[in-house]
C-alpha cells in the first residue's frame, strides 16, 4: 500500500479503534494521542525499576505475586499502560494502569511479567518532574534546634531534577566544596493533577501519592554562603527518594511515623502529626504562588535530630562510607550510602 497521508491517518484510526477494545499494543507516541480517561491510580504501591544500571526506567507495581513489570505486562496482554512513573503521573493515566494491573493479576498470559523484588534494581521514583518544591522548618522542634524562628507560613526553597536519587543508590559527597553534610528524613508529596490556587478543603485530592525522601544538605553551603539555602540543598544527587510511592487513597499523610538512622543508629524519630503546616495547607499554600503540575514533588520538612541541631562540639558530620536509612510508616525504607 502506498504511504499517502490519507492511508497513514486511516492506519492510525484503526490502531486507535483496536486499542480502545484492548486488541492491540499501542506505541507510546500513539498513546499520547489517545483519549484515555484521565485520573490518578488507586490502591497501588508503585516503584521505578531500572535495567542494566542505566537510565532505562520502567514502572513497577508491588503485588502479592511479586513486582509487576508494567511495560512487559502491557506487551504480553496487548493493552496500553504507561511505561514509566513520569508517564503515569504527567499523562494522568491512572485508570489505564489500574485496568492493566487488575487484568495482569488474573491473566495467565501475564505471568512472565511478575519478577521477584530481590532481583529488582530501583531507579529514581520519578525522573523528570517539572518542579521539586521543598518546605523548610516545618517541625517546631527542628526549627528550635537550629535556632530559627518558628515560621508563620511555609518556608519554600527548591531542588532540581539533577538532585534526584534512588533507593539503594549512593550520594557522592562534593568534599572539595563542603564539609558539613547532614541528613533530613522527609515525607514527599507527589502531585497528581494541576493545582492552582486550590482551597485547603480540596487540597488532598491533588496528591497522587506519598513517598519517603531525604533532603540531603551541606550545612556550610546552606548557612555560610550569604543567607540563602538553595546551594546547600540542590547539589547533584541530594534528593534520594523511594523505594515506593503509595497511592494517596492508602495513606493518611498527617499521621505517619518517620525515622532516620545513620549506620544503624537512630538519629531522628517523630511523626508527621507534628508538622507545623499539614499536607493540605502546604499544597494549598504553594498553589497560590506556583502552579503545581502532575508529577511535581514536594519535600515537606524534617523533624528534630539533625546534626546541625547538636551542640557545636558534638557535631560529627557525615562522611564517605556512612549508610543512611530513612523510613516512613507504610511508605517504606529508603537506603543509600555516601561515597
Ligand atoms: Mg528539609
Protein architecture, described:
This protein is α+β, with helices and mostly antiparallel strands. It has 2 domains: 37-119, no CATH class; 132-338, Fumarylacetoacetate hydrolase, domain 2 (Alpha-Beta Complex). It has helices spanning 5-20, 28-31, 70-77, 85-91, 94-106, 140-145, 219-223, 230-233, 279-289; strands at 45-51, 56-63, 66-69, 114-115, 132-136, 155-159, 164-165, 169-171, 181-182, 185-191, 207-214, 217-218, 239-247, 257-262, 265-271, 297-299, 323-328, 332-338. Strands 1, 2, 3, 4, 5, 6, 7, 10, 11, 13 and 16 form an 11-stranded mixed β-sheet that branches. Strands 8-18-17-14-15 form a 5-stranded mixed β-sheet, with no helix packed on it. Strands 9-12 form a two-stranded antiparallel ribbon. α3 (70-77) crosses α5. The longest helix is centred in the first third of the chain and has 16 residues, at 5-20. The chain is globular, with a radius of gyration of 21 Å. 46% of the residues are buried. Residues 1-24 have low confidence and may be disordered. Magnesium ion (MG) is lined by residues 134, 136, 184, 186, 215, 299, 301-302. Magnesium ion (MG) binds next to β5.
Tags for this model:
27% strand; alpha+beta; 339 residues; 2 domains; Fumarylacetoacetate hydrolase, domain 2; binds magnesium ion; disordered N terminus; 9 helices
Write a brief structural summary.
The protein has 339 residues and is of the alpha+beta class.
Amino acid at each position: 500500500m502506498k504511504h499517502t497521508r490519507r492511508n497513514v491517518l486511516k492506519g492510525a484510526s484503526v490502531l486507535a479503534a483496536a486499542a480502545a477494545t484492548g486488541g492491540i499494543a499501542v506505541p507510546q507516541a500513539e498513546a499520547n494521542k489517545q483519549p484515555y480517561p484521565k485520573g490518578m491510580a488507586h490502591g497501588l504501591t508503585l516503584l521505578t525499576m531500572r535495567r542494566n544500571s542505566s537510565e532505562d526506567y520502567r514502572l513497577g507495581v508491588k503485588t502479592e505475586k511479586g513486582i509487576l513489570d508494567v511495560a512487559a505486562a502491557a506487551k504480553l496482554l496487548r493493552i496500553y499502560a504507561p511505561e514509566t512513573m513520569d508517564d503515569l503521573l504527567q499523562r494522568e493515566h491512572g485508570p489505564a494502569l489500574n485496568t492493566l494491573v487488575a487484568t495482569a493479576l488474573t491473566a495467565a498470559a501475564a505471568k512472565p511479567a511478575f519478577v521477584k523484588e530481590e532481583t529488582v534494581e530501583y531507579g529514581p521514583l520519578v525522573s523528570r518532574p517539572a518542579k521539586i518544591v521543598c518546605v523548610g522548618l516545618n517541625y517546631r522542634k527542628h526549627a528550635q534546634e537550629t535556632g530559627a524562628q518558628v515560621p508563620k507560613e511555609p518556608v519554600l526553597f527548591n531542588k532540581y531534577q539533577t538532585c534526584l536519587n534512588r533507593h539503594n543508590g549512593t550520594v557522592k559527597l562534593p568534599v572539595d566544596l563542603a564539609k558539613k553534610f547532614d541528613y533530613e528524613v522527609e515525607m514527599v508529596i507527589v502531585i497528581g493533577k494541576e493545582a492552582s490556587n486550590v482551597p485547603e478543603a480540596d487540597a488532598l485530592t491533588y496528591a497522587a501519592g506519598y513517598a519517603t525522601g531525604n533532603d540531603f544538605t551541606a550545612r556550610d553551603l546552606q548557612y555560610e554562603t550569604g543567607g540563602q539555602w538553595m546551594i546547600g540543598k540542590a547539589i547533584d544527587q541530594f534528593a534520594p527518594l523511594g523505594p515506593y510511592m503509595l497511592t494517596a487513597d492508602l495513606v493518611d499523610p498527617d499521621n505517619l511515623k518517620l525515622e532516620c538512622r545513620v549506620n544503624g543508629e537512630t538519629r531522628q524519630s517523630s511523626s508527621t502529626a507534628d508538622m507545623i503546616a499539614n499536607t493540605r495547607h502546604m499544597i494549598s499554600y504553594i498553589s497560590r504562588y506556583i502552579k503545581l503540575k502532575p508529577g511535581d514533588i514536594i519535600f515537606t520538612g524534617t523533624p528534630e535530630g539533625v546534626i546541625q541541631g547538636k551542640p557545636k562540639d558534638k557535631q560529627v558530620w557525615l562522611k564517605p562510607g556512612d549508610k543512611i536509612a530513612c523510613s516512613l510508616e507504610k511508605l517504606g525504607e529508603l537506603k543509600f550510602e555516601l561515597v
